[in-house]
Amino acid sequence: MILAVFILIAAFFAVYTLLPFWEKGFRLKRLDFSGMEKDSLLGKKNAVLEAIRDLEYDYKMQKVTDEDYRQLKEKLTKEAIEIMKKLDRLDDAKSSLKRS
Question: What's this model's pTM, rounded to 2 decimal places?
Answer without folding.
Answer: 0.62
